[in-house]
Every structure is written in structure tokens, then in C-alpha cells.
Amino acid sequence: MFEIDWSKYRLVDVSLRVVPGEGDRRLVLRPYVFPVDGSFGHEVDTVTHLGTHIEAPAHYDLEAEDVTAYPLDLFIGPMVNLRFTEVAPNGEITLGMVQEIVEGIDLREKIVVLSTPHFREDPAVDHRPVLAFEVTEFLVNAGIKLFGFDDSLTIDVSAELAQKTHRVLFDHGVLILEYMGQLGELRQVESYLMALPLCIAGFDSSPVRAVVIEEKVPVGR
Predict the structure, then answer these.
(1) N or C: which end of the chain has fewer CB within 10 A?
(2) What pLDDT, on the 0 to 100 scale, is given for residue 220?
């Protein structure tokens, strides 16, 4: 029987909680009634890039693969958590920073997620460091299978950087997990992540519930 010893591991929710009517992306719930028994359901008016979400190549080409075109094992697996605690506000995450953290870690077929202490809580106050394109190239060449980050860093300083970052990932079969949450609560560099998209054909992106299973840190460490 498969069983996880929860005395040794903990579950961390790394998804953002989304509230209808809040934030800059549309989410409207319209209740309706099932006539057979008077119970309730909801019509949902929203966007595919909502909260924590997985992006597929159809994000840049409507004829390309959507989120249903990939095997489920792409969205689960060993994860490497790259936390850049020393990067300055509005600074840059460089290739050298990444190479220093991942030295000795085999990134092949790993899910790699990045974060900094500069999470953007208020859209009007933005101190997020920029992710250098060389970092993305390095991770792709290292053989990662899924690339994730939260709102504490950015690639959106220019259309050119955003486009070429997305395209180099998609061209190598690496999907993107954006707007993650609570990454600062993780305590281990290596853990295990699950982030499954909805099985809806045509979705260029899909909201996910992303969770990490990580080994508990012994008391006193």
C-alpha cells in the first residue's frame, strides 16, 4: 500500500488564493439553481491566466499545444527551489547567481522554481528583480521539465524579454508555472511538486492548485 509518513514530510500550498472581484483579472461567479433538488451551482466568468496557472505554447500560438496535450507526469515531480535572498530590489537575477545555488544539483527532468524576498503585494509598488534571459537558457539546456516563479521577480520589463523567455521554454517543451504563492515558506532546496491543469481542450493556460511535499526540518536546525 502506498503511504506517506507525514511525521517526516509536510504539505505546503504554493497557490495564490483568488477572490472574485479582487485583483486585476476578471473572476465573476453567477449562482444558479438545479431544478431537480434546489441545490446550487455557479457559472464562472474568468480568464485562463487566473491566479497560479500553467501556460502552454497556445499562449503564443492558438494553433499550438494547449494544456491538455501533455502527459500528467510533466506536472508532478522532484522540484528544486531557487531562492535568491541576496538580490537587491529592482536588481537582476544573473546566471552566476543561479550557477552558485545549483552547483552539484542535477536539474535534468526537474521542476525548477524561482523566488526572491521582493514579492509584489501592491501593483503600484514594484521592486521585483528582473530574471536575465541567460538564466532561462541555462535552465533549458540543463534539461528542466517545468519552470515556475512567483510575483517576486519579473520578465515583463520589455516585450522582447517576455517573448523570448516564453518561446525558448515552449520550444524545448518546458511549460511555465506562473504566479505561485508562499514560496518563502519552503525550507528545503529539493522537494516534490504537484500542479495539475484543468483538462479543458483549447486552454492556452489553466489555473492550478500547486502543492509541495517537503521533508520536515528537524527541531533545532
Answers:
(1) N
(2) 57
Helix (H, G, I), strand (E, B) or coil at 58: helix
Give yes or no for a contact between 80 and 189, defined as CB atoms under 8 angstroms apart: yes
Q: Write down the pLDDT at residue 123.
A: 81
Positive or negative: CA dihedral 175, 180, 182, 184: positive
Residues 6+ apart with CB under 8 A from 196: 72, 75, 76, 208, 209
Domain ranges in the chain are 9-16+51-215, 20-47
The span from the CA of 128 to the CA of 74, in Å, is 28
34-58: b (≥16 Cβ within 10 Å) or e: eeeeeeeeeeeeeebbbbbbbbbbb
Positions in the chain short of pLDDT 50: none
Q: 209 near 75, Cβ under 8 Å?
A: no
Q: What is the pLDDT of residues 85-125, one digit of tens each?
A: 999 999 999 999 999 999 999 999 999 999 999 999 888 88
Residue holding cell 508532478? 76
Classify residue 217 by its DSSP letter: P
Burial class (CB in 10 A: 0-12, 13-18, 19+), 27: middle
Compute the mean pLDDT over every residue in the chain, rounded to the nearest whole number: 95
Of the candidates 127, 202, 140, 211, the one whose C-alpha atom is nearest the C-alpha of residue 176 is 140
Using alpha carbons, select from 26, 30, 65 the residue that is nearest to residue 49.
Answer: 26
Phi, psi of 149 (to 5 degrees): -160, 165
